Amino acid sequence: MDNERVDQIIDKYNREPSYLIQVLLDIQAENNWLPKEALERVSERLQVPLTRIQHIATFYKAFSLVPKGRHQIHICMGTACHVRGASRVLDKVEEMTGIKPGETDLDLKFSLEIVNCLGCCALGPVMEIDGKTHGKMSPAQTTDVLKNYE
Amino acid sequence: MPRINSPAELEEVRKEILSKRDPNKPCITLCSGSACHASGSREVAAKLEEEIQKQGLSAEVDIRKTGCHGFCERGPIIIIRPEEICYFQIKPEDVPEIVSQTIKEKKVIERLLYTDPNTKEKIIHESEIPFYKNQGRIVFGSNVSVDPKSIEDYLAIGGYAALAKALSGMTADAVLQEVKKANLRGRGGGGFPAGTKWEGTRNAPGDIKYVIVNADEGDPGAYMDRSLLEGNPHAVLEGLTIGAYAVGAHEGYIYVRQEYPLAVENVNIAIKTAMELGLLGKNILGSGFDFTVKVHRGAGAFVCGESTALMTALEGRAGEPRPKYIRSNIVGLWGKPSVLNNVETWANVPLIINKGADWFTQIGTESSKGTKIFSLVGKITNTGLVEVPMGTPLRDIIFKIGGGIPGGKKFKAVQTGGPSGGCLPEDALDLPVGFDELTKAGSMMGSGGMIVMDEDTCMVDVARYFLEFLTDESCGKCVPCREGMRQMLKILTGITKGKGKEGDIELLEALAETAMEAALCALGKSSPNPFLSTLKYFRDEYEAHIQEKRCPALSCKELIAFYIDPAKCNACTTCARKCPSDAIIGGKNLIHIIDQEKCTKCGTCFEVCPPKFRAVTKISGVPVPPPVPEEARTIVRESKQK
Amino acid sequence: MSEVLLQIDGKEVKAKQGMTVLEAAQSAGISIPTLCYHEKLEPFGACRLCIVEVESRGSTRLVVSCVYPVEKNIIVRTRSEKVDRIRKMILELQMAHAPDAFILQDLAKEYGADKNRFEKEPSFCIHCGLCVRYCAEVKKKNAIGFVDRGIRKEISFIPEIAAKECWNCKECFPLCPTEALQAAYVLVEALAAFPSPSAEHASGK
Questions:
Q1: ipTM of the complex
Q2: Contacts with B322 (C-beta within 8 Å, 6 or more apart), sequence order
């Protein structure tokens, strides 16, 4: 992401330092991760210390400091999904992708995250891939779903 | 629409909107909340629009895409007005028939109706379905009547009348007194009286004050606030504006999780249209009162639901709670007096102003007034959002509305209050729901998550699950929470893995005391609750894990084994084919055996074994019986002998 | 500024309005143990070791003295069975990370804390934040900050800033209750990844 685009985002929020998190969310949404150069630019333009930006970028779950995979797998670990066996789905996904939550595989194919309640409790256990919800998952179904992603 | 400059003009606009609406014109209402989206309501909507056009009905039929109706188990949901015919679990392929049969011919399609599981009777109207019949939906009920993206829809149901009433006919103090008199208690967690909180802010020195909506609903398994903000954003804005008027604030914030994109979208549209109509902004309804609202998206941190952490996040910093002993309604956002209430609390405000505190206090118990929305989830037949008057017994919510436990299983516990809450056993089911009642029983109201657990749920694992959640979500600032939970989680995980030892329970209790007494914020102080309440009611499960290395619920992976009962196995090969780990040694006419070395305990075999055999079982606390000797494995089938 | 009269450990203490209980106690020569407190820095309230019992209008509760403001006529007890029990637990939790820190060892003796109560995870840092806050509040350099949250929370230098600012400062090192081990280690690690002219200068080139 070039500095020009970063500046546009910052200007959208009138260069107001209290919008720091909103600026970072926009960069994350557009770029899929937060490159160091972008953070330095934000620090400079908003006059916010880099230490604070670094804390925010690592404190909140929405941010990533490394590139993400082509497909984002979110496994819901909300209580409703948990009591319906979400951890078995997670085990299966970990086994198939070889990655743990928070990781991305070397081919940049999948990134795996666990999330706390997607609010689709009626469909639990729920797995979301690239925004598409797969409900009432079992370990066996998980295998079938993952096979469809290249 | 032009700007509305006075309460009288608001009524004019309302009349005009209503005069253009023919109550007898067919209208298809489709639930478009997040849960129904996940069940395919977008596809149904597209098909509906296409089909209505194809059958030449565009001018004669309205389609309204509303927010969540609550009965998420049966989504996507359609209601056809004026007959109020209710169809469930609609698929795109059902649409042509709905249009040609129900809309054109006025015929009811039997198979799409709700079937009462007990009487097997088909039910046409929403109000007659047990799930809805036993609720009292004064806050959530409007969701079915409005398209959240249309301010006209909200005005048509009487929207912004409470704001007009407050601004034109009541002093700020009178508004405050009405809310105090209604004894509206915060629906987000602690149940603190909203009126008292507002009064503190109103009386605090300084000209700059803030009002804030907490829409950072983070309790796993709870989504009431999302559904309200998504489905009826103007009700929240109206309540917030009334609150701002009462305390003397001119700026408001909505802090909403970025994981709720539809809520973010709908509330932004609502703010924009309310600004255009003069229901927000300068000189609202000609009253001279100014008020603007900004939306901040939360970037994913449970701790930001804590009031001071939320305000820290609004200031653009990492959401760590403040260590000060000063209430945020006196020293809050940017050090200014700030009222923070959650979505549901704000949504109650217009009702109180419209109908009066006397009406509001008729509903509920002595100390808990009005209704509460719960998200009823877990091992329950009718998953969804339910709104009931305070004082309704838990049993009614779970069995009458929720339809009880599916699959003929036995109820074990209900977890209320989110991660800071607790688990209540069967004995507590006659408890009327209310803030103080639940606290007394060792749980809490929290924001309204209600997770039902059946006999297959391990209570030690539930405690471990919540501690894991809270450890992951701890901000890490204070020692009792960060380090205390690290240790509690380690011990609990050990117990569920069969590594529990004597003294673990006592050590957990000591860590719990340190967190309760010494942690910095409410999240840390309440973090031991999941452990303490499960220990209080299910101590025997802890002891079975520690002493016998047995999981009574047959749930903890490390403590169970899957075993095929040779007497019941019919060699149907289903489990062997479905096993993702190739751990089942089978074959035609051979009794199947699970290779315990290879088995990952995923439970697939247990699920796929046909109910007529039920040969796969779970065992715990005892060794797995040795496999059947090779020579005895062949099944000789009687039919083939003949 | 108006004066407030309160009682600490049975002693009448005069304090200024706005002071914390900890400051009032210190001014009266009464010691309360702390780990994250520093007179030049904003109160942080993180280690919770300075917890005390406060009795006010008949009810007693535990508060953290470094952030609790003095009030008229309150009765403060800096030691009690419960206070000691909680301090012991806090020390034991910290000693899982920094078992050899002298300040923790001394306090452990005082409160009977067992440094082996919890499994060791030596990471030295006890997250008192003194280095981070001193760099930001006193030096205004922001060369070191916190990253991540919960049990993954750590301190981290920004290499570019550290390379410029830290060589001639290092004032955060002596503040570290774990004898500067952690700050020094993290700084060296950060600088190793960032060779810079000032680094060359410092090494004598």
A1: 0.91
A2: B308, B309, B311, B312
